Write a sequence for this structure.
């Protein structure tokens, strides 16, 4: 017993020594090295308080595929630290899903979110703002003249006040294997029927037409959402919450039936219902599958040799085509993910200043273009398409810019327009469709039931 | 009987630290949960409305909830009918071999030392329909690929197998410790009397370790009722909710959907169901074996 | 015949070991392969060329050393504390003559086994906030100690109950107080159970994810499971590197277990000599 006890004690000792060491080196790195002579907006330079203080930024830039975004954030943090005397910014990295579904919610329930945090606009931010947990940043935006610079701030707006800013925008469409298309003489479809035929051809060739991973239901729902926006029109989604429109609308049924038809025809890999998000990208990278519905953010994967290997430069992008040739292109386009701020910040003028400085440094044309160039994130701020095109000459990015320019009508993703519990019901439903357990009409009846319950509870 | 064992001060000193922690981290939170289960709280709002038993009524009317209950029952049945016999048999085997005892003991425990997150990753490889171990082996016998985690008919059994793989060794070590604690003289005396290995096992060893087996069964039931991590890391309750257990149902329909009050009512139901099952077990089975003491 | 009788158990046990160990071998092999294609084309054999880059990358990328020592000291400290408290309570409940109170206390604690901890996360988070120890290791140690108490009490009480009553009668006649009886007689006799419970508690703490994920945010405070999941999220397309990460997270506990499991046998021998 004694020997192992000694061993354990030694290990504990070593552990605590290491910890102490880690702590120290970290502090050393973060010591604010600024003198604090700048940053005087209101002429009170005489008594600038430069005693050290700290704010935490919760971000979700974890992992290989987000390294550029992290670098960008780190630069903004540095600029902000330099501009505010005494400020130390602590970066707290958490996986996006974990932050959205667990961590931030727990902190909100306890009333103690970090000063700055990654947040989804709708429905999350609205809910938090309603409880007075988020800082109203309208005055700051007015002061910095940023208010009208964004494509849309709707997801972050509640009762005319703005509670957060989107970091970037995105659209949803098809990534495809350009090389394969050229070899087989295939071309980008102009109608849904053509897309259908294309899939049939690819299937006959022994390849998987569409890569999809449905373990997380939001992935197949990208396809479904875009389909029903064509069949039933994008306006229909806005009416579900108010009860003006119903999920059981025959055109929505038709859209779900279309998705089901693709499943039944074997256009997706068998067993994909159990696959993780990364698997579908792998299907494209290995050449096993030819097309993939995903958000434009996925371009960063296909432009990085470490992740995409030989496929770099061989992937293209197109919008989901309309039902009839020449109809306007309808595409999901939103800017729902960004940063929010704790309402507790308002109690401390120095923290307010830090937040203001952070906003000032983060949302600039320069940073938006840098995000676009390095990371392929579409700007959340209004920007000339021509300027975007000159920023990145990557062919995949050019495809995406072209897709943006083709958009006739854009709509926000359905989960920003309906209650969380409706999203849950729809998620369940689409997996049942893919699993072949249920018919579209019945599935949508279930969703409508959840919608009715949620609407009733909301009143 | 004697004074040394009736010292109120010592008794208090011995009981209080553990008991206070227990009250703070078990009883108090349970009261909070029960209280919240009667509300429509969204988990964030400061306004909390009491809605009586509505949450419970909603749950009882939900087909998906009963499906999750059924999956918990599968968990229990699998633990008690498949795992427990295996645990007893392998404990006896290990206790009675002379060679490699240390190796067996170390090895059987190995799956239990891994975090569930890692096990989820590992078994994800094994169940991979294209190159996973499971299908490769079955392929040798000409079985066509099974979509373990994607097919609703296979997903639950896949999870149960993984769960058993993870925890069987854990319980084996517990039972083994009890078997090894049995005084050697008893077995030796029986051996001299001419009892066979099988007779010794059933007549002496198993009755003597019955209290521990009983504990193992109780722990399996409690574990089965609480099981969540393994489901979350393997299927997230999917496909289409077919592997939801009560705990993941709670997460799916309550926490993810901002229905905290409803979630708490599910937690309370898990608690109540577990108590009912354990009490049933105690009354029906445990009582009969309780008289055996040594 | 005798030889056959001796080998049959080994055949069964070896088959069981194969089931247990093969996945580990699979991970081990995968961890020295170059990439996914390598794993997919030859999943179960050794690769043609062995590479250790995955280990280096995993160690550097995943900061496993920091997470490892955090997990180790939190796990050991919490497990020791809960065993101490649980053993005291188990002794008082099973051996001291307050049967009525003891029955109530014990039943209550038994109830604790049935409480679904997952759902108690938010109330416990509230307690931690009131104590103002969020984002410190204390925020894990307290709940870990508390969470292990019901289980430890049940196991230790079961073992203590099975100890023959004559031992303590003799000890009390020798003039030992109840505290002395606990420290000098009962604890040494319970060593096998204590070691078992220690291992189980330690592992529970070592692998705990939910609380560690919620209650800590600083990277340098993180424990191994949180680190591993982060690692998986970050590198989930690189199976080879993930396998190396798995090896890192599993190897240390395997060594600790291998050391401690000897003690179980030692404890039993010591116990039976004294008894």
């Amino acid at each position: 017993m004694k020997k192992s006890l000694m061993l354990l004690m030694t290990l504990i000792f070593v552990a605590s020594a290491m910890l102490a060491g880690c702590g120290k080196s970290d502090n050393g790195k973060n010591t604010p090295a600024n003198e604090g002579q700048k940053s005087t907006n209101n002429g009170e330079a005489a008594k600038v308080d430069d005693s050290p203080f700290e704010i935490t930024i919760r971000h979700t830039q974890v992992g290989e595929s987000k390294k550029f975004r992290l670098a960008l954030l780190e630069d903004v943090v540095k600029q902000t630290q330099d501009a505010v005397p005494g400020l130390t910014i602590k970066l707290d990295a958490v996986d996006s899903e974990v932050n959205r579904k667990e961590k931030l919610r727990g902190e909100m329930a306890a009333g103690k979110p970090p000063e700055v945090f990654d947040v989804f606009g709708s429905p999350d931010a609205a809910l938090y703002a309603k409880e007075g947990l988020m800082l109203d940043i309208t005055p700051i935006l007015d002061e910095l003249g940023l208010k009208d610079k964004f494509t849309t701030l709707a997801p972050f707006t509640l009762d005319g006040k703005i509670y957060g800013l989107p970091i970037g925008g995105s659209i949803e469409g098809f990534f495809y294997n350009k090389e394969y298309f050229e070899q087989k003489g295939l071309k980008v479809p102009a109608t849904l029927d053509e897309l259908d035929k294309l899939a049939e051809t690819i299937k006959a060739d022994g390849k998987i037409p569409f890569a999809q991973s449905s373990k997380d239901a939001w992935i197949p729902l990208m396809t479904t959402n875009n389909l029903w926006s064509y069949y039933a029109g994008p306006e229909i989604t806005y009416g579900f919450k108010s009860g003006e429109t119903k999920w059981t609308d025959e055109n929505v049924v038709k859209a779900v039936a279309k998705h089901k038809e693709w499943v039944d025809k074997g256009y997706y890999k068998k067993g994909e219902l159990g696959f993780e998000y990364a698997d579908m990208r792998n299907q494209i990278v290995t050449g096993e599958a030819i097309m993939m519905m995903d958000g434009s953010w996925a371009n960063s994967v296909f432009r990085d040799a470490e992740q995409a290997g030989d496929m770099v430069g061989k992937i293209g992008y197109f919008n989901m085509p309309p039902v009839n040739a020449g109809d306007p292109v309808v595409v999901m386009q939103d800017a729902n993910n960004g940063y929010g701020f704790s309402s507790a910040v308002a109690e401390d003028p120095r923290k307010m200043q830090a937040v203001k400085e952070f906003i000032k440094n983060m949302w600039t044309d320069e940073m938006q273009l840098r995000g676009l160039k390095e990371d392929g994130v579409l700007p959340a701020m209004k920007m000339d398409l021509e300027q975007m095109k000159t920023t990145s000459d990557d062919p995949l990015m050019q495809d995406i810019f072209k897709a943006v320019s083709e958009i006739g009508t854009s709509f926000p993703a359905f989960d920003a327009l309906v209650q969380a519990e409706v999203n849950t019901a729809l998620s369940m439903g689409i997996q049942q469709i893919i699993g072949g357990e249920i018919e579209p009409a019945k599935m949508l009846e279930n969703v409508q039931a959840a919608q009715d319950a949620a609407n009733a509870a909301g009143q | 009987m004697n004074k040394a064992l009736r010292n109120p001060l010592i008794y208090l000193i011995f009981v209080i630290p553990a008991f206070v922690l227990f009250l703070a981290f078990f009883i108090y939170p349970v009261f909070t949960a029960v209280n919240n289960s009667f509300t429509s709280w969204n988990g964030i709002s400061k306004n909390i409305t009491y809605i009586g038993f509505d949450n419970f009524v909603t749950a009882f009317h939900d087909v998906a909830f009963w499906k999750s209950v059924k999956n918990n029952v599968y968990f229990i049945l699998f633990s008690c009918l498949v795992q427990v016999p295996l645990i007893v048999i392998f404990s006896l085997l290990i206790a009675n071999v002379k060679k490699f005892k240390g190796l067996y003991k170390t090895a059987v425990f190995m799956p239990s030392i891994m975090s569930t997150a890692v096990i989820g990753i590992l078994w994800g490889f094994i169940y991979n329909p294209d190159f996973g171990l499971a299908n490769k082996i079955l392929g040798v016998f000409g079985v066509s690929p099974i979509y373990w985690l994607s097919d609703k008919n296979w997903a639950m059994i896949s999870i149960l197998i993984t769960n058993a793989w993870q925890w069987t060794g854990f319980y084996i070590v517990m039972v083994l410790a009890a078997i090894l604690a049995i005084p050697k003289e008893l077995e030796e005396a029986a051996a001299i009397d001419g009892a066979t290995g099988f007779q010794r096992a059933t007549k002496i060893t198993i009755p003597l370790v019955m209290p521990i087996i009983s504990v193992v069964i109780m722990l399996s039931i409690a574990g089965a009722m609480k099981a969540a991590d393994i489901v979350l890391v393997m299927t997230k309750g999917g496909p289409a909710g077919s592997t939801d257990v009560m705990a993941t149902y709670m997460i799916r329909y309550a926490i993810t959907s901002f229905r905290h009050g409803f979630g708490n009512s599910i937690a309370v139901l898990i608690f109540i169901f577990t108590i009912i099952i354990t009490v049933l077990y105690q009354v029906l089975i445990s009582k009969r074996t309780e008289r055996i003491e040594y | 015949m005798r030889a056959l009788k001796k080998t049959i158990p080994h055949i069964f046990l070896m088959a069981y070991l194969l089931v247990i160990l093969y996945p580990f071998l699979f991970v081990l092999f995968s961890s020295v392969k170059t990439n996914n294609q390598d794993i997919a084309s030859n999943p179960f054999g050794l690769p043609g060329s062995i590479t250790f880059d995955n280990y280096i990358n995993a160690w550097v990328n995943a900061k496993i050393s920091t997470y490892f020592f955090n997990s180790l000291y939190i796990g050991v400290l919490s497990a020791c504390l809960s065993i101490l408290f649980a053993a005291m309570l188990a002794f008082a409940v099973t051996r001291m003559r307050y049967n009525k109170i003891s029955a109530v206390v014990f039943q209550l604690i038994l109830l604790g086994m049935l409480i679904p901890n997952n759902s108690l996360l938010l109330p416990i988070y509230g307690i931690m906030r009131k104590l103002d120890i969020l984002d410190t290791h204390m925020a894990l140690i307290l709940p870990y100690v508390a969470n292990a108490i019901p289980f430890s009490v049940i196991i230790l009480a079961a073992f203590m109950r099975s100890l023959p009553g004559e031992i303590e009668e003799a000890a009390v006649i020798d003039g030992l107080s109840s505290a002395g009886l606990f420290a000098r007689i009962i604890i040494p006799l319970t060593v096998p159970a204590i070691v078992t419970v220690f291992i189980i508690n330690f592992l529970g703490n070592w692998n705990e994810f939910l609380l560690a994920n919620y209650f800590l945010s600083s990277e340098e405070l993180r424990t191994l499971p949180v680190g591993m999941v982060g690692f998986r999220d970050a590198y989930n397309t690189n199976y080879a590197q993930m396998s190396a990460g798995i090896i890192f997270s599993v190897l240390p506990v395997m060594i600790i277990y291998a050391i401690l499991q000897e003690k179980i046998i030692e404890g039993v021998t010591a116990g039976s000599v004294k008894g």
Summary: DSSP finds 19 helices and 13 strands in chain A. The radius of gyration of chain A is 24 Å. Residues 171-334+392-458 of chain A form a domain with the D-Maltodextrin-Binding Protein; domain 2 fold (CATH 3.40.190.10).
